[in-house]
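Entries read sequence, tokenised fold; example below:

***
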Amino acid sequence: MSFSVRATGALAACAVLATVSLAGCGGDGAAKGGGSAAIKVGLITKTETNPFFVKMKEGAVAAAKAEGAELTTAAGKFDGDNAGQITAIENMVAAGVKGILITPSDSKAIVPALQKARSAGVMVIALDSPTEPQDATDALFATDNLKAGELIGQYAKAAMAGKPAKIATLDLAPGVAVGRLRHDGFLKGYGITEGDPSVVCSQDTGGDQAKGQTAMENCLQKAPDVNVVYTINEPAALGAYTALKAKGREKDVLIVSVDGGCTGTKAVQSGQIAATSQQYPLKMAEQGVKAVVAHAKGGAKASGYTDTGVTLITDKPAGGVEAKDTAFGLQNCWG
């Protein structure tokens, strides 16, 4: 879920070169075919260090090489760096990309910059996180984040087996669609609505482990009897686990999460997290690059929403909720 000064700075240089390679654009090796004939594709992620986006970049690099395309990448300094994403978009348009793949840090604030890019003839595909409105991009390749949240909500409800719930939600941040969708999905899966009294604490974490720990500490002060914790992602979940363990509560609180990274899946295997919804970032980028190249070669423009899949991962299955075990999760994880 970092904008790289190195990457965005290199983009400006690429804008004035007639022929550039992937490496020349702060990217990832020369594209097959190279030269000015190569179709240029841009990838802009929220951050450079989060394993989710590292895997996404890997997918884009592999697809670009396979398609003979030229890939330029940029990443934010932090999750929420909208200004950095706008700069990257402008530089990529100036460099002559045919398409931009982007995981928007701010689903609404990024829209004007994307509209300018599309007006300039650039195809724009959102990866992982939709814009608001969703049709501000040509297409969306992503996990069904509402479904991802719903799966862990259903699991938590079944695992509680009728015991009254005292729920803490450790969310992402205001203005980020993926965070809202996962949160709303969890509530739906649990069979409750926003404002339900069983939700005793809600805190934003930015998807960060240290902030997740602080958020859990705050919730334990507010509601010491918390027994279910929903987290936006696994770093936040591990932060929550640390806070609970410090209070001796790690064995009697159910933690559920979303992402399915390798570290998170191992935390499910060890019992720190009860279940997680696994998503597949490599597929998002791979399919996005292929869609841009296909359109640039005269094919149809991708449109609408393409679901790249989600799977509930747990070693403690709950009745009526379809899931795979951590052996499957570790074979398909990222990071």
User: Anything to note?
Assistant: The first strand starts at residue 40 and ends at 45. Confidence is low (pLDDT under 50) at residues 1-35. The chain has eleven helices and twelve strands.
